[in-house]
Amino acid sequence: MKILVIDDERSIRNSLKEILIDEGYEVEVAENGVQGLSMVEKEKYDVIFCDIKMPEMDGMEVLDKLMQMGIDAAVVMISGHGDIDTAVESIKKGAFDFIQKPLDLNRILITIKNATEKVHLVKETKILKKKVYGQPMIGESEPLLHIRAMIDKVAPTDARVLIIGSNGTGKELVARNLHQKSRRSAMPYVEVNCAAIPSELIESELFGHEKGSFTSAIKQHKGKFEQADGGTLFLDEIGDMSLAAQAKVLRVLQEKKLSRVGSDKDITVDVRVVAATNKNLKDEIAKGTFREDLYHRLSVIVINVPTLDERKSDIPLLVEHFIDQICSETGMPPRPIDPDALKLLVDKTWTGNIRELRNVVERLLILSGATISADDVKSYVL
Question: Choosing a second label site near 343 at 20 to 30 A (CA), which of 174, 213, 255, 265?
Fold first, then answer.
C-alpha cells in the first residue's frame, strides 16, 4: 500500500507521514501540487491525500490534473477551511472523500481502508472486463475497418470462419470478437493451440478420453469440443494438426457427434468452430499434410488479417493503447511518447507484427526516462 501526501504545511505532511508509517503504510510527501503531480507521473500510488488550500496550484486544480491522468488511486481532499459546497464540488470532480482539519486518526484510517477496497475493486473489475470482453481491436485503418465490417456480418450467423495471417497479427482477437458478437456470447469460448499440443495427445485434448483408455488416463476427461458445447471453439494453428485428428474434426463438423478416446459411444455437441493458421493451407493440401475436405468445411468465410506494415496508420493508436495497458498491468507510471519517437516506430518494418510492437513498447517503458524519446527508440529498438 503506497500513499502520497500533498500539503504545503510541513508539520501536517510530516506528522501524517509518521502516523501512517507506524500503521505499516509506505508513505511519500510533496510540499506543493506541482511536485505532487510530478511524483504521480513517476510512481504509482494507491491513495493520495491532497490539501485544498496551497500556493501556486490549489488542491482542486491538482485534483483536476489527477483525474485527467486517469490514475487508479483514490484521492482524498483535506482542508482546514472546508464547507459543504467545497466537499460536494471535490466529490463531483472525482475525489474519493473529503476530510477536514484537524485530522482525526481514526477517520483517516477508515478512509484509507475504504479507499483501498475501492481501488482493488476497480482493478478487479478491469481484469474481469478484459477476461469477459477481451481486448478491443485498436485502429481505424482501411484494412481494420474491413475486418470489423466482416465480423459484424458474420458473427450473428453460425458460419464457420477460417482466419489467416502471419504470426502476431491478432488472429485470436478476431476470433474472440466473432464470439462476443454472436448469439453464443453467453456460452463458453474455448481456445486450443494445435501447434502446442503433442500429436499423440491432440485427440484426447479435443475429444476427451475415458478412464483407463491409455496409461496416464486415470480419470474420465471431457475434451475441448465438449467443453465448448453451445459456444465457440477456436482452433488456433490448425495447419499443424495431424491427419488423424483432422479426420475426427471433420466427422464432428459433418455429424455434430464425437466419441472420446477409448469409447465407442457417440456424444452430440453444438459447437461453432473458428480456425486460424499462419500457413497457406492450399499449399499444405498439395503436400498431402492437410485434408482438402476439412479445408472446405472450415473456410465458409475467410478473414485475412493484415500485417502491421499493411496498417501503419494504426501504430500511434496501438502504441498509446499498449502504454496504458502495460502501465496498468505492471504498476509503472504512464508516460508520454515524443512525436519524433512515434514517427520512428511508424517507419520501422515490423516482421513480428503487433506482438513485436507490444514487446517494444514494454521495453521502452522499462528503459526510457520520463518521456519516451527518439534517442530511446534508436538505442533500444532500431
Answer: 174
- Compute CA distances 217 → 26, 74, 221, whole Å: 51, 51, 8
CB atoms within 10 A of CB 80: 13
Per residue in 148-180, pLDDT (tens digit) is 999 999 999 999 999 999 999 999 999 999 999
62-65: Cβ within 8 A, 24+ apart: 62/6, 62/33, 62/36, 62/37, 63/90, 63/93, 63/94, 63/95, 64/93, 65/33, 65/37
pLDDT of the residue at 163: 97
The residue written with cell numbers 479435443 in the block is 206
Q: Could you tell me the strand order of the sheet in which 161-164 lies?
A: 189-193, 232-236, 272-277, 161-164, 301-304
* Strand intervals (E) in the chain: 2-6, 26-30, 47-51, 74-79, 97-100, 161-164, 189-193, 232-236, 257-258, 267-268, 272-277, 301-304
Q: Let me know: does 179 contact 189? Beta carbons within 8 Å.
A: yes
| Cα–Cα distances in angstroms (integers) from residue 239 to residues 205, 236, 245, 272, in the given order | 16, 8, 11, 18
CB atoms within 10 A of CB 371: 12
**pLDDT at position 292:** 95
| Alpha carbon distance 333, 71 (integer Å) | 9
List of the chain residues with pLDDT < 50: 129, 131-133
Chain centroid, CA 158 distance in Å: 27
Residues whose CB falls within 8 Å of the CB of residue 285, separated by 6 or more in sequence, listed in order: 291, 292, 295
Cα gap 152→365, rounded to integer Å = 35
pTM surpassing 0.90?
Answer: no
Contact 220, 265 (CB under 8 A): no
Instruction: Label each residue of 91-122 as H, E or C.
Output: HHCCCCEEEECCCCHHHHHHHHHHHHHHHHHH
